[in-house]
Design brief:
Radius of gyration: 18 Å
Distance between the termini: 15 Å
Number of strands: 2
Largest sheet: 2 strands, antiparallel
Strand content: 5-15%
Structural class: mainly alpha
Strand order of the largest sheet: 1-2
Shape: elongated
Length: about 140
């Protein structure tokens, strides 16, 4: 498309949607949100950019092949589940690591649940963009 307003608006909207998707990803532990909805929001940003600037430019902005993003996400999610087995728990049992733990402070809590959500985020982002880009390139 050749609309300067649409292209400028799409660039701004991509940034806003990616920031909001990161917020939804990190918010998902204790409230609605998580990897699935965060991945959909991020994919929406790139779809808007593809509509405004074309699929070729959207792929260039993404920098990685969407199928590879989905494959890496699947590996990350699987790795998060396998970690529990190393500690003798059932597959996909949440494990917690507290960084900077002291006698009076628990420190920064990190969990395999967050790692799993990041994997889901990448799978959804890659899968949706693979489908959308393929549909747009064939039309």
């Amino acid at each position: 498309m050749n609309s300067v307003i649409l292209i400028a608006g799409a660039r701004l909207q991509v940034v806003l949607l990616l920031v909001f998707s990161a917020y939804m990803l990190l918010r998902g532990h204790n409230a609605p949100g998580g990897g699935f909805i965060g991945g959909l929001i991020a994919a929406t940003g790139f779809v808007v950019y593809a509509i405004a600037c074309g699929t070729k430019d959207a792929r260039a902005a993404l920098r990685f092949d969407p199928a590879n993003i989905a494959a890496v996400g699947l590996g990350v999610a699987l790795l998060a589940g396998i970690v529990a087995i190393l500690w003798g728990d059932a597959l996909f049992t949440g494990q917690w690591l507290f960084i900077g733990e002291t006698e009076t402070d628990k420190g920064l809590p990190l969990s395999t649940i967050l790692v799993f959500d990041i994997g889901v985020y990448l799978v959804v982002l890659g899968a949706v963009l693979s489908i959308v880009f393929a549909l747009e390139e064939t039309s």
